[in-house]
Amino acid sequence: MTEVDLQLVTGEDELERFVRWVVTTDLLDPSRYLSGGELVLTGMQWRRDPSDSDTFVNTLARAKVAGLAAGDALYGEPPEDLVEACRRHRIPLFRVPEHIAFATVTEQINRNLSTGRASDLAAILDRHRQLVSGGGLDSVLDLLHRNLGTPCWVVSSTGRVVAGPADAPPDEVRAAALSAPRLPHVIVLGGTRFSLFAVDPDSTSRVADWFLVFQSDHKDWPEERRALTGELAAIVALERARLDDRQSAEGRLAQELIELIVSDAKPAEIISRLELTGLALSDRYLAVAATADNGAVRPGELRAILREILSGRTPAAGVVDGEAIALVPVGDEDALDDHIHRAIEALEPGLQGSRLSVGISGAVDGEGLRGAVEEARYARRMAAERQQPTSIVRHDELATHMLLLASVPDEVRRMFRMRLLDPLTTYDRDNRADLVHTLETFLQVSGSWSKCAELLHVHVNTLRYRVQRIEELTDRDLSRLEDRVDFFLALALR
Fold first, then answer.
1. Each residue's pLDDT tens digit, 60-81
2. Do 246 and 255 form a contact (C-beta atoms < 8 A)?
3. Which pTM value belongs to this model?
4. d(CA 288, CA 286)
5. How many Cβ atoms are within 10 Å of 192's Cβ, its own excluded?
6. How big is the CA angle at 31 (ends 26 and 37), to the nearest 5 degrees?
7. Which end of the chain, N or C, is more open, meaning fewer C-beta atoms within 10 Å of its C-beta?
8. How many CA atoms, within 13 angstroms, populate the side-chain half-sphere of residue 53?
């Protein structure tokens, strides 16, 4: 910045960044006006107290700006809190002496960049035209390969090659992209260097993201080529959003199908919606349910992961109460549950502290979808109890009563549950009571009055009154084993 006498305050190690243009702002959060590579000029009108510096600089860092230049007019020199924030977020900070106008800085830098910017813009427009004209990502990557001499692929977190040359990169690349402490990352395989970049690291968890794979070492690239990776990532992110079926008619129908299955909808409604999604009643299906703890992997991302794992099989997927659920057609000899198990375990390095719990049902026909979904959700809850980074429970690990219930027709299961539990849920709703929870706890302790009263934090006499009310409302006797079994099964069908 010697041409305009800007004085470097901090960030000596970050000076190789490529400046694409200049932006002047005094907003505390200018992110809507930033797209990466800017030199930001500011008069610091946004600063009301020292804590504002970290807020402002953090915004710049997330937007991937090239640097920050602060004018001297307001404070005489950059305040120490601003210097520390830039140092912490690795943003080069320059001081603009009071006698230098921001317009002068902008004019000089733009003059220096104008030639390079014109060629860059032409290339960007050409790549976008290629994408919009129907060539897709393959044409964009081919253009890069021909112009830069570097093969490039787009790879999903499951290792699927989304786009790129026919000779796909080694399988170890996917594992490296998931497990690398930071991206970009360079891996050497058989003497060949591969550079790995995340497509959307700020908005998408690592385990659900796509990756750019270049057959070269990005550390050897000129700054202009490094800037291209950000542009390419933006194009890939747009293409992935375009392919996301959640906003399509098929995706909405799939979501509605899953919601109907989980709710008390009648079997005829479920079958009708199944046919609308393009799935056949005569086919056989597996249900898969998945959740992730601590919020690092969002439910919508889990849905995308399930669709990615099941790609090529036209699954119907949706999200209900934070749980991703998918139905996928299977053949008689299909070892799909093994495929799902291996794929989920392979994702573990990308979880980065999260835990992924997955349940897989047995195969059912179209009339048994509710049973399969309940079986998968029950298996998923069992998986969550294991406290492992990735835990998968299949249908053959479930208790025998769950397998029995899954084979019962939906309408029979629904009527059985309603007959036993509806009087209790109605009473609880009308009287703000707790009979259903009392019943569940009573059965969990095998009818022990003292243990149940202790768990419910009530007197034994209060518990006896509640049990008497349950028996009166349902015309059942909780001292009888067969009635206890009926209640236990009805609760399992919720």
1. 999 889 999 999 988 888 999 9
2. yes
3. 0.57
4. 7
5. 12
6. 95
7. C
8. 18
